[in-house]
Each structure stands twice: as structure tokens, then as C-alpha cells.
Amino acid sequence: MNALFLMVVGLGVMALGYVFYSRFLATRIYRLDASYRTPAHQLRDGVDYVPTHRMVLWGHHFTSVAGAAPIVGPAIAVIWGWVPAFLWVTLGTVFFAGMHDLGALWASVRNRGQSMGALSGRYIGARGRNLFLVVIFLLLLMVNAAFAVVISNLLVATPSAVIPTWGAIAVALVIGQLIYRYKVGLLWPSIGGVVVLYALILVGNQFPVVLPETVLGLSAASFWIIVLFAYAGVASLLPVWVLLQPRDYINGLQLFVGLGILFGAVLLSGPTIVAPGFNTEVPAGTPSLVPLLFVTIACGAISGFHGMVASGTTSKQLDTETDARFVGYFGAVGEGMLALGAIIACTAGFATLADWQEVYSEFGAGGVNAFVAGGASILSAGLPIPSGLAATILATMAILFAATTMDTGLRLQRFVVQEAAGLAGVRVGKGVGTLVALVVCLALAFGAGADGAGGMVIWPLFGTTNQLLAALTLSIVSVILIRKGRNPLPAMVPLAFVLVMSVYALAVQAVSFWDTQNWLLFTMDVVIFVAAVWVAFEAVVAMSRRGQVAEAQDADTVHDEEAAATAARGPGRGPVDGRG
């Protein structure tokens, strides 16, 4: 089959989802209100709470949630065939991820920018909140440690990506100053930033930075891990407008250009998909498609990490509530497009089925390297781009995705540390919270595996924990919708599916970890299983208490009533969303 079919159908389904389904969610379910005063204005502090242009905020949200996972997950999952992966990515993006991301953002905005952990305490209860924080902390730990390892491996394997990777930071700092300090419009900084980033890619391709085998007594990969965490620690303490926002925004533009180049190459070359639609001859030891497909592809279909970003940083920067449709739902669509590109690269980027089978010789093979190699083959075939430069472009794209997620992930982990300390009656400042987050991430990266590989030791649990967190986030959204007397089915249907598949996957993985005597993963599996099931039970109890909770207790109730009255009187700025 021609890969062009997958691209056209996949992009078409996602476009229809944004045009029609997101409008339904915005107007009928969440009832986004252009006149609602968002936390960015209520609590403006110039550090975390900053009203932000929706294009800039979309760039932050999109690049923060679209880390390495929407590349790694699909690149591994195609071992079962391209059909299951394609269906889960396209339908999951439209009906699961968009609903989840928009819902988490809306729920946080309507509660003064509180995180999902804090909202779980309010809507589910104290026990649910404490267990929710455990799941959140473990997920962020996995995200930060694993992505640091992915980036370091790519920097070692593709040294031509080193200069553009670190040069992007300088570009972001300049853009931040131009937009916020000197009040320059978005157009020219955007054009200039993208041009400079791609110029840096050309420079990096000509002057690759190859580290010696050992640097200060560390391997090259370990050295990069240390440098990455040092950078992420500093970045997490800076005001969001200095680095986080402009870095995410310009990376978002650059990454969309990269996706455009990849899809353009597919359009021009029309590569053939050599991988089977359904792989009936999977390698020995490959787990069953159900339930593992639905947790292997987490980001790119639905992801609990998105809820952490939406409620942790994005909600604090939303200028107008109606911007949530573009920022939240279209942010999920952007990640779905990346996952679609990964599927195409990893199924049509090989010359023959035998070449594909050689790479996918065992479960877990493929990953980012398959995406870079396969995508580079498609780029060089469809466009006048040398294969080496094509590999540099895709490697840089993958690194920048993962790096921006680390920036946000460490900041979120600091929030969780501070929140947990506050519950224990201890006040923890930003510096101490960041230090604690850095220490535990580095301990995992270097303590759970040799030579800084620990971040990947727990990768099998990342997808499962991520999906569980998505289900728990949807449970909070469902409780809020029920209390407001709105239709909860758009949230409860994906909630039920994802929860069942995630718990099923945890059970399957627990047996596997027990059989292989992997006690670290087995212990984490059991802790996550107990916490998730308990929180889900508390959520069901909370849903059943609908009639016992006065709607007037909700922070936005008075405003909702006033907005409804205004809408009843005639045209005005009521719950609308016509700007998407």
C-alpha cells in the first residue's frame, strides 16, 4: 500500500475532529466563555501566571506534551502491524486525546490554575489526592529520566544535531526578549527564529560535535545526561517568558516545518509500506496486541502527561478561556500528526519487508533510531536532501521535542514536590524543590541502570502509568461535568476504555516482572496498580455523590449563572468559541 493513503486519511480524520468535534466539546460540554477571567489575569505574577498570545501558548503546550514518546511508542508498536497503530493514533487523537487535553485545561482554568493533583483533592477527596500525587510523581520521574537518556543517546549517535540542539536555546532567549521586553510583534521573530534554527542545522551537519569516549571520567552519554539536567534545572527556575515560552513556541514552528517536510516528501515520493498491516509472525517474546498496544502508544493517542502540562503550566498562561480549544485540542492534534509521521517513517522507510523484519527482530526494537533512519530515507527520496542532512533534521526534531518536554517536566515535578511538602506542613522554596526533583531523576538514571541507562529500565512502565494518569484525569473531569449537570459521556467513554486497558496491562506486566525477577519494576507496578485502582474507586464514589454537593460551592458557579443570564438577555460574550 502507498503511504500517501495513510497520510491523507490520517490528516483528514484529525482535521475533521478539530473542526467539528472540538467545537461540540467547546460549546456544548465545556461551554467555554470568552468573558471568563482566567488565572493568568486573576493571579498574574510575571513568573508562572502570564497572559500569553494563543499562538505562543500553543507552541508551549504542543512541544511540551509532544516529547519523544509519540515517536518511540508508534515506532515500537508497528511490530504488530501498521493497521492497529494507525487506527489507535487517528481515532485516539480525535475522541480521546483532544477531549482529555481540553478537559484538563478547562478544569484547571475554572479552579484558579490548580494542578490535577490539587483538583483530585477537591473533587475526589484527600485519600484520592495523596494517591494521585504518587502516580503523578512516578510518571514525571519516568518522563524526565527516560527523555534525558533518549536525548543523550541521539546526541551521541547523531553528533551533527549537537549545534542546533543547544543553539535553539540562544534563539529562544533572543525571541523572549524581543516579544516581551521590546514588544516586537510575532511575525518577524517567528520567521527569523525558524530561519536561524534551520541555518544551525546546516552548520551542525557540517561541523558535528563528537565527544571523546570519556569526559571528566564519564562516558559521553552520561556526560550529556548531567548537562541536560543542569540545563533543565536552571530553565525550570526562570520566569516562563524568558525561556520556556519562546523556546517552546519557536520549536513548535520548527517542528511543524519538519513535519511539513516529511509529509511533503511522502506526497512527492509516494513510498510503499513494506510492513504488514497485521503482523502474524511477530518475534518470539512479543506480548499480545491487547492490551499492550494501547499503552505502548500512549502519547500520540492519549496521554496523562498532557493533563499535567495543561493544568501545571498551560492553564496559568491562558489569556482567554476560548483559546483553550486551539491550545488544548489542537495541541493534541499536533502530537497525533507526529505519531502518524512516525508510523509512516517506520513502515515505509525501508526498501523491503526483509529490511523491516531485520530491524524489528524483537519487541522493543525500532524506536527513535528507526524513525530517523526510515524518515531520512523518505526525505532523501522525495526531496533533494542528502541522507545525512535528512537524518540531522529528524534527529534534531526528535531531540527538541524531548528537550522541551524535559523543561516543562522538571518544572512540574518541582510543583509536585512543593505541593506534597505543603500537605506535610513543610514549606519548600523553588530552589529546594528543583534540587529534590533533580536528585531523584539523576538517582533513577544512574542508579537503576549502568552508565546512565536507568531512565530506560523503567520504560515498560512509562506508557502504562501515562495511560492510567489519563484515566484518572478524565475521572476528575467527569465528576466536574456531573456536578454541573452536563453530559459526562464524552469523558466517561474514553475513561472506561483507557482504565480497563491500563489496569489489564499492569497485571500482565506484573506477571512478566515477577517471572524475570525484576523487583524494581514489579514493586513500582504494584504501587501504581494499588494507587490507580484506589483513586478510581474514590472517583466512582464522588460521582455517586452528585446530589450531595451544592453547585454553589464551585469557584465558577456565580460566573456561570451570570454568563447564562447575559446570554438569555441577548447577544453578548457568553459561552462561545468561534475563533478556533
Largest sheet: 2 strands, antiparallel
Strands of the largest sheet, in order across it?
Answer: 1-2
Main structural class: mainly alpha
Shape: globular
Distance between the termini: 34 Å
Low-pLDDT residue intervals, each spanning 5 or more residues: 547-555, 557-580
> What is the tally of helical segments?
23
Roughly what percent helix? over 70%
Average pLDDT figure: 85
Count of DSSP E strands?
A: 2
Content of β-strand: under 5%
Gyration radius (Cα, Å) is 22 Å
String of helices and strands: HHHHHHHHHEEHHHHHHHHHHHHHH
List the helices and strands and how they pair.
Layout: H1 3-29, H2 39-42, H3 54-65, H4 69-77, H5 82-109, H6 116-123, H7 126-157, H8 162-181, H9 187-206, E1 214-215, E2 218-219, H10 220-237, H11 244-269, H12 289-296, H13 304-312, H14 323-348, H15 353-359, H16 367-382, H17 387-423, H18 430-447, H19 454-457, H20 459-483, H21 489-515, H22 519-544, H23 557-569
Antiparallel strand pairs: 1-2
Structure in words:
The protein has about 575 residues and is mostly helical. The chain has a domain at about 5-20 and about 40-275 and about 295-420. The protein is built from 23 helices and two strands. It has a two-stranded antiparallel sheet with strand order 1-2. A hairpin with a 2-residue loop joins strand 1 and strand 2. Helix 11 packs antiparallel against helix 17. The protein is globular and about 60 Å long.
